[in-house]
Design goal:
The protein is mainly alpha-helical. It has a five-stranded mixed sheet, with no helix packed on it.
């Protein structure tokens, strides 16, 4: 027992931030992050993963022109170019491309950077909680609890920008909470910078900033007071300018994105909304059915969803005894999240990652709950039995997330077994004379991720392309030089037979045919 006590004492003597990083790394290993880091885009939403990776790789390969983003799929300019952009500012893709310039192109770099940002965000969330509670146990537990959501765990080590946006939101909140406690204006500016980064990575990450803006307007108008003494925003003019700058920069990019996509006739990336009121009863039922049967278990361990509901009701019951600022933000973020769900309701049917930046609501629900326990029930707050109970609950969630990560990469979720040859085919393509700029038709693929995996521009079956001989002929007219097919079944399609006369090579299950530029109909 003395040995264990000495180990515990030495561990507790270590800087709290370092101790927390230890837990982060331990959880990361449990989730198999080290081996996932070297994986190419695959599994749940491999299509969107490949789109993100494609934007970065095209910057790297086409001259680093920030305002001319491209993808491998040539669906713009009447199916002749890859010029298109997302509604988020492509800071992430451009930075990754810069790293490719230094270290060379490796998917590992993209995953590693996103993972590093995500884990750093969790560290700053821990630091923010510690500012509020001055208690490393509860601060650690709160943050690790969010590192057990299968959705956050999966996308925290991935290619999408959503998890990084949430991480920047956590960092921004750390500096804003320091500003709230110390009222040093410099901290406000730093928080605005990170809110800008969060919004640049994903517009939905601005939920928090909108809530802060409403608090600012309400305090300036004398409607709301969030501090017991003095004002939170003591310099309203510079604060106003800061808010305007952040929203203007994000707004200008959205305007540019719409104009850029319109110029190139591209509807590939959505820059609009998919609201509830545009859906009929059948479609609404489809969304709710998918959420219930497919995604709820991915958002969180089901009992955790009950837990969040219970503690939210608890905080509402004690609303007058809670921290005024935290409670105000909680309610405003709840309203904002509800509006977001209504505006993008249809996307929730098939896209779990659209919920990532809504987790900030659950963060504030949990923080408010612990704050109330500390203020109203100090004995429970200090109780070792309550702590043991929460540790046990945390471990249940940890195990659930571990299982879901394993399933996402090894079960029905993943397409990898069927498409694995595409992951390593590029050197072979170069060896038989197919250059990166040679355009191809790749079948079967209802997305575009095979184009990225091969690093070849071209077309697939996506968006109704190449579904018959006329469509194939159109792709050839647009410059397709090769037909690349995966598996024997695809070769039985009658409309393809006239295009299989010139075999150019074979890589495992993938066959390659050279296309004649003269079309016989």
């Amino acid at each position: 027992m003395n040995i264990f006590k000495k180990i515990q004492d030495r561990f507790e003597a270590i800087n709290p931030n370092i101790r927390f990083v230890f837990w982060l790394l331990l959880f990361s290993v449990i989730y198999n992050y080290p081996s996932i880091l070297v994986k190419r885009p695959q599994s749940v939403h491999h299509w969107r993963q490949a789109d993100c990776a494609s934007l970065a790789l095209n910057y790297y390969q086409t001259g680093m022109h920030f305002f001319q983003p491209q993808t491998h799929n040539l669906t713009s300019d009447n199916n002749t170019s890859g010029y298109c952009t997302t509604s988020e500012i492509p800071v992430s893709y451009y930075v990754i491309a810069c790293l490719y310039k230094i270290f060379g192109y490796h998917d590992f770099i993209f995953r590693f950077v996103n993972t590093l940002i995500f884990l750093t965000g969790l560290l700053y969330l821990f630091k923010a909680c510690n500012l509020l509670f001055n208690n490393t146990f509860w601060s650690t537990l709160i943050v690790l609890f969010f590192f057990t959501s299968p959705v956050l765990v999966y996308y925290g080590n991935n290619f999408l920008t959503d998890s990084s946006a949430l991480a920047f939101t956590f960092i921004a909140w750390y500096f804003f909470i320091k500003f709230y406690l110390n009222n040093h204006q410099k901290l406000f500016y730093i928080s605005m910078l990170f809110f800008l980064l969060a919004g640049a990575y994903k517009i939905s990450a601005l939920l928090s900033l909108v809530a802060i803006l409403i608090v600012f307007i309400s305090e300036s108008a004398g409607i709301l007071r969030v501090k017991n003494k003095g004002k939170l925003f003591s310099k309203p003019i510079v604060c106003t300018v800061s808010f305007l700058l952040v929203f203007s920069i994000i707004g200008l990019w959205v305007y540019f994105a719409k104009s850029y996509n319109s110029l190139h006739g591209s509807g590939y990336f959505s820059t609009g909304i998919f609201p509830l009121w545009n859906l009929d009863k059948t479609k609404i039922q489809m969304v709710t059915k998918n959420i219930k049967e497919l995604w709820l278990n991915q958002y969180y361990y089901v009992y955790s969803l009950y837990f969040f509901t219970a503690i939210f009701l608890f905080t509402i019951f004690y609303i007058k005894k809670g921290n005024r600022f935290l409670m105000t933000i909680n309610i405003l973020v709840l309203i904002g999240s509800s509006i977001y769900v209504v505006l993008w309701f249809w996307t929730l049917k098939d896209h779990d990652y659209y919920t990532i930046n809504l987790y900030i609501l659950l963060v504030f629900v949990f923080i408010n709950f612990i704050w109330l326990i500390k203020a109203q029930f100090p004995k429970a707050y200090a109780s070792k039995y309550l702590k043991i109970l929460f540790i046990g609950f945390l471990l249940l969630n940890l195990n659930h997330a571990r299982k879901q990560m394993k399933e996402r990469y090894n079960s029905w979720w993943t397409e990898y077994p069927e498409y694995k040859d595409y992951h390593t085919i590029t050197p072979y393509l170069r060896s038989i004379g197919i250059a990166p700029l040679d355009t191809v038709i790749c079948l079967p693929d209802m997305s575009h991720f095979t184009l990225y995996l091969m690093n070849q521009r071209g077309w697939t079956e996506c968006l109704g392309n190449n579904s018959d001989s006329t469509a194939i002929a159109t792709s050839i007219k647009h410059g397709a030089k090769y037909l690349i097919v995966n598996g024997e079944d695809i070769l039985t399609r009658n409309y393809l037979k006239s295009f299989l006369n010139n075999p150019a090579g074979q890589f495992h299950s993938i066959k390659i045919f050279k296309l004649s530029q003269t079309i016989n109909r």
